[in-house]
Amino acid sequence: MRYISTRGAAPTLDFRGATLAGLASDGGLYVPDHWPTLSADEIAGLAGLSYVDTAVAVMAPFIGDSLSRDELRALCEQAYGRFSHAAVTPLRQLDHDQWVLELFHGPTLAFKDVALQLLGLLFERFLKDDDGAPLTIVGATSGDTGSAAIDAVAGREKIDIFMLHPAGRVSDVQRRQMTTVRAPNVHNIGIRGDFDTAQALVKAMFNDPAFSGRFRLSAVNSINWARLMAQVVYYFYAAVRLGAPGRPIAFSVPTGNFGDVFAGYVAARMGLPIERLIVATNVNDILHRALSAGDYSSATVVPTATPSMDIQVSSNFERLLFDLGDRDGAALAAQMQGFEASRAMRLTNAQHGGAAAHLASASVNADGMALAMRWAHEHAGELIDPHTAIALSAARSAAFDCPTVTLATAHPAKFPEAVERATGLSPALPARVGDLFEREEAFVTLDATFDAVSAYIAERATPRS
Ligand SMILES: *Cc1c(COP(=O)(O)O)cnc(C)c1O
Q1: What does pLDDT average to over the chain?
Q2: Has this prediction a pTM greater than 0.90?
Q3: CA distance linking residue 205 with residue 164, whole number of Å
Q4: Which of 154, 170, 324, 341 has the smallest set of CB atoms within 10 Å of its CB?
């Protein structure tokens, strides 16, 4: 399997190369050069397999020669052995046709663990037989990604992680999930500024040739193909439990950067009978406007109770546009340059029509979200987090004539205030993270300047030899 850039002008790589590169050198994103497919018989054969066995079957074609099947299985056992539920991603039934797929049983209680726990191990494995410099991961987080990434690489060989968060602007639970991880390769930096400032500092370091030339910089956001690949697994795992390939299944996905729902699209391209993927957004509805009216134009972000969906630009949408636009990298590069210049673009007829065959979309406001949280609690006795509630609201309105699975992307205890406002109940932190408030924290707070932050990292990271 080879990986090609969505903008058509970067070298093609194998799985190992695409995992270590993250972003392609032409500014595009890596995608497989073709979609491997599973026949109906092969999909039927997944019924009853464990999560790890499903993961090996679904991911092996994407990995090619980069790992043997036994090595892949060992990494999956290690990554998913850290989940607190034996099923890794259990399904729960809310209603005759409404189901929830719980993706939050990993160490940091967010679905990002499913992909990042594996990515941390893949990095370590691929760096082991590489004589280059250690990897220096630099990222900015408004909450969930930072803690999941830190947990995934803490203590791993040949990786250092520097995670910037806006000081005083992440919740106590989110900050403590990052700052109480005590490993010598983990560096938490509070920035005196907001998330956009922290993000801009990270971009400036990547774009500064003097700084980025000295270190082997890497990113862990969802532009990394390996993250998306790991997420394809749970679509198969859930669908075969509900009757696939014998009957189609719909999924509703709380969407921000379009990584999670793109993984569902990949599952459909591989042959899984998916009725529709519902792209559920909050009032920051650029994706809903793009999919319903072909208008991809970014507006100002409105902060909501679902911060992981408060986005202006969805980086992985580019992968969908590439696949639906005849995989024409030069044409997509021109389209994306137009978007970067004007912050707006029209989808082509092929992109708009192609998307409609796979995707539906909905934008859900705060009332719809609260109503869905109350319904899940009163009707099925389940507390769900605000992000999940946005997608459940969209799933209930869509009313497909088939089982509909809402992806539950965060544990409700990560967002206790919003859950309590809607249901009157405050969800408790699970026992395994219950001592979070007793653990000691370690982080520094720095001024939001390029010099302060780059100097701090340069003193602690390992330069290229
Ligand atoms: C990251 C995140 C999302 C959005 O996922 P994308 O892959 O960026 O679309 C939704 N919900 C929660 C809780 C998240 O952490």
Answers
A1: 94
A2: yes
A3: 12
A4: 341
What is the Cα–Cα distance from 459 to 318, expressed in whole angstroms?
36
Tell me, using a 6 A CB cutoff, whether residue 387 lines ligand 1. Answer: yes
Query: What b/e sequence results for 59-68 when a residue is b if at least 16 CB atoms lie within 10 Å of its CB, and e otherwise?
Result: bbbbbeebbe
Q: Strands across the sheet with 91-93, in order? A: 91-93, 98-102, 404-408, 249-254, 274-281, 359-363
Task: Map tokens 């109503």 to a residue.
Answer: 371
Contact, 76 vs 118, CB < 8 A? yes
Task: Indicate which atom in ligand 1 lies nearest the CA of residue 231.
Answer: 7
pLDDT for residue 72 is more than 70: yes
3-state secondary structure of 294: coil
Give Cα 214 distance to the centre of its chain. 29
What does the alpha-carbon distance between residue 2 and residue 33 come to, in Å, rounded to a whole number?
6
Fold of 134-214+437-460: Rossmann fold (3.40.50)
Q: What is the pLDDT of residues 283-341, one digit of tens each?
A: 999 999 999 999 999 888 898 999 889 888 888 999 999 999 999 999 999 999 999 89
Tell me if 284 sits within 8 A of 358, measured CB to CB.
Answer: no
Ligand 1 pocket test, candidate residues 101, 104, 119, 257, most atoms within 8 A of CB: 257
What are 33-42's pLDDT values in tens digits?
Answer: 999 999 999 9
> Is residue 427 within 8 Å of residue 412, measured between CB atoms?
yes
CATH 3.40.50.1100-classified regions of the chain: 84-107+224-421, 134-214+437-460
Cβ–ligand 1 contact at 318 (below 6 Å): no
**Nearest atom of ligand 1 to the alpha carbon of 143:** 15
Instruction: With a cut of 90, say whether residue 262 has pLDDT above it.
Output: yes
Buried b (16+ CB within 10 A) or exposed e, 139-157: bbbbbbbbbbbbbbbbebe
Residues taking part in catalysis: 112
pLDDT digits (tens, 9 = 90+) for 359-412: 999 999 999 999 999 999 999 999 999 999 999 999 999 989 999 999 999 999
Class for domain 84-107+224-421, per CATH?
alpha beta
Ligand 1 centre to CA of 228 (Å) is: 12
Q: Which of 308, 317, 384, 414 to mutate to test the pocket of ligand 1 (most atoms within 8 A of CB)?
A: 308
